[in-house]
Amino acid sequence: MIDKVREPGEKPESDLYSMDKFVCDLCQGVREREGITQCGFCGRWVCKGENSCWDDELKCCESCSGLIILAKSGDLLEEEIDENEVEKDE
């Protein structure tokens, strides 16, 4: 299960040393508003672009993408076990 860090639409943490920049919740990098996005699963604000904390393929932050990948691989293993049990019964 993915825990919520922030609610949808909750503002990102501002950088104290600059006016229009925000802090990535994962890498703590400072980005302009256009350079961060909110994860729909956990609510984290993360940097996007090249070498970022955003997974373009899964459309979520790297933290959630790791959990999703683990969950998917676990589901595949369960399906394989079920298929093996069916073959043994026949």
Brief summary of the model shown:
With 90 residues, the chain is α+β, with helices and mostly antiparallel strands.
Q: What structural class is derived from the secondary structure elements?
A: alpha+beta
User: Spatial order of the strands in the main sheet?
Assistant: 1-2
The best one-word shape is elongated
Mean pLDDT: 84
Residue stretches low in confidence (pLDDT < 50, at least 5 long) are none
Q: What assembly state would you assign to the polypeptide chains in this entry?
A: single chain
* Helix percentage: 25-40%
Q: Terminal Cα separation, in Å? A: 36 Å
How many strand units? 6
The Rg value, from CA coordinates, equals 18 Å
Biggest sheet, in brief?
Answer: 2 strands, antiparallel
Number of domains: 1
Helices and strands, in order, run as EEEEEEH
Q: How many DSSP H or I helices? A: 1
Into which percentage range does the β-strand content fall? 15-25%
Topology:
Blueprint: E1 21-23, E2 30-32, E3 36-38, E4 45-47, E5 54-55, E6 60-61, H1 62-89
Antiparallel strand pairs: 1-2, 3-4, 5-6
Descriptive overview:
- The protein has 90 residues and is α+β, with helices and mostly antiparallel strands.
- The chain is built from 1 helix and 6 strands; from the N terminus they run ββββββα.
- The radius of gyration is 18 Å and the shape is elongated.
- The model has no long low-confidence stretch (mean pLDDT 84).
Main traits of this protein?
single chain; about 90 residues; alpha+beta; two-stranded antiparallel ribbon; 6 strands; elongated
